[in-house]
TrEMBL record:
All residue ranges annotated as the MPN domain in the record: 3-127
PROSITE patterns recorded: MPN (PS50249)
Listed name of the protein: M67 family metallopeptidase
InterPro entries listed in its UniProt record: JAB_dom_prok (IPR028090), JAMM/MPN+_dom (IPR000555), MPN (IPR037518), VirAsm_ModProt (IPR051929)
UniProt keyword Cytoplasm present: no
SMART domains listed in its UniProt record: JAB_MPN (SM00232)
Example GO molecular function: metalloexopeptidase activity
Keyword terms, alphabetized: Hydrolase, Metal-binding, Metalloprotease, Protease, Zinc
């Protein structure tokens, strides 16, 4: 699987991760046909935002309504790992579902992408 992401969207994710450090930054990936056309930063409302993320439900609902009207889709979400680990954590795996959505992780000023399979996370190529 491959996910297209513009350099401006990628840089916006990395900037959000740097700004929210040491908390996990998070947001939504919006686009069409496997191409991220924009990101929507969200507040991390998790009880332990230094260790896990939870996208603000109001942002989540608003963006889903917006994309329905525009023809875009929510392709997945992004979050940062302030600990520098560029792969999904155990907390990520415990909350993941096999719905085809992409998880982009910002760590060490770089991005990796993943999707959940029936067994585990699988790497997604960023293009």
């Amino acid at each position: 699987m491959k996910l297209g992401i513009s350099s401006s969207a990628a840089e916006a994710i990395l900037a959000h991760a740097r700004a929210d450090h040491p908390r996990e930054a998070c947001g939504l990936l919006v686009g069409r046909s496997g191409q991220v056309t924009r990101i929507v930063p969200a507040d991390n409302v998790a009880a332990r935002p230094h260790a896990i993320f939870e996208i603000d439900p109001a942002t989540l609902l608003r963006v889903h309504r917006e994309v329905r009207a525009s023809g875009e889709v929510v392709l997945g979400h992004y979050h940062s790992h302030p600990n520098g680990r560029a792969e999904p954590s155990r907390a990520d795996a415990a909350r993941a579902v096999t719905d085809g959505q992409v998880w982009v992780i910002a760590a060490n000023d770089a991005l990796t992408a993943w999707t959940m399979t029936a067994e585990d996370f699988a790497a997604v190529e960023l293009a």
